[in-house]
Amino acid sequence: MTQLEQARKGQISEEMKKCAEVEGVSPEFIRNGIEKGTIVVVRNIKHVTIAPLAIGKGLKTKINANIGTSKDRVDLALELEKVKISVAAGADTIMDLSTGGDIRKIRQAIIQASTLPVGTVPIYQAAADMVEVKKAIMEMTGEDMFRVIEENGKDGVDFITVHCGVTRRSVACIEEEGRILGIVSRGGSILRNWMSFNDRENPLYEQYGRLLEIAKRYDMVLSLGDGLRPGCLADATDRGQVQELILLGELAKQARDYGVQVMIEGPGHVPIKEIEANIQLQKSLCNGAPFYVLGPLPTDIAPGYDHITSAIGGAIAGSAGADFLCYVTPSEHLRLPTLEDVKEGIIASKIAAHIADIAKEVPGALNKDKMMARFRKNFDWQGQVKASIDPEKTKKFLETSKSAKEEGCTMCGEFCAIKLGKVSSHQRKSH
Predict the structure, then answer these.
(1) Burial letters for 38-76: b for 16+ Cβ neighbours within 10 Å, e otherwise?
(2) What is the count of structural domains for the chain?
(3) What is the pLDDT of residues 38-86, one digit of tens each?
(4) Helix (H), strand (E) at residue 393
(5) What CA–CA distances, in Å, run from 367 to 23, 56, 364, 373?
(6) Is residue 56 part of a domain?
(7) Which of 23, 71, 354, 394 supports an S-S bond with 100, CB 3.0-4.6 Å?
């Protein structure tokens, strides 16, 4: 039985118990959330070397790190280094978005190296396989798509992004309304062009039952992709995006009815005043399914700093109820991320997720900040380093003040407000 089927029978699995222990909640809380569809437990039944991960309502906000090759940069050793950095920096999951090289071999190596759940976007391999045999992408068939999805399940992929909501009707909404950037999702664009060229409906939508059978076989979580997400602020929350979301809500219900766990992916580039409304809309249309958001990015003009842009949007989205943040690196829109880009993106997303957890009153979230405050009061530098979100960088930046006998940093030295406060307190006591 899948985790969802067990939850419906009132059974608490070992995976649920492990997740409950990590989250600081009861196993029944996890089971109940899975039954309602507000929590998913991510772990393919063939990927037993990793710990299961719970994502959803009432739990810590999770973050994902994207890695993977491109046609211009095929370096498996580099991608495996990115796996190590992602784990060390504190990511919760890794997505292999490879589009260049032997994609299945790369995926298998990443799964073997990762101690975290791994996700993929199978349509990338299906398209790349066509190119490899010198065929046009538009020549691939539904069979090609489902063959790759089955391979992902067999290989142990824990969750897959599938663009089932990119249909002839939802694409027509975008074309009729008009957009500045059109479709910016790779998967969404591939399927839009495929439907146009073949004059047929999206096989992932048309044969959705077949997709559910594969997902159920491996207890893979379906991440229903936002193939029509906005790629700039001007395109946000338009008819195409909303039409796709309505359809994803319907497909999510079908998946749960079949015993398959599901989460929903969201935008994208969104003005800051629309972020909360987007979260509320998703939760309403999709019956509270876990929401997985890219960013969101509340401005388009910060290339090189989009990890910061994303952290701002992610903190707001998480506070409003988003459950899972996909990191954005400084190199977003510009290049394939480097090792340092990966780390910077993860840390920025961790900050956003922690801010969101405080706002959502996740158990234990605020305790970390109280601990840091006590360490600062006591000039406990080692404690501050350990309590920080990036201890390595904190230690590197730290300069204690010699003029203040190390009771303060070089910013204020002997004029440190905390040090002066202690002196004042001591004087009051002595009088």
Answers:
(1) bbbbbbbebbeebebbbbbbbbbbbbbbbbbbeeeebeb
(2) 2
(3) 999 999 999 999 999 999 999 999 999 999 999 999 999 999 999 999 9
(4) helix 391-397
(5) 14, 21, 5, 10
(6) yes
(7) 71
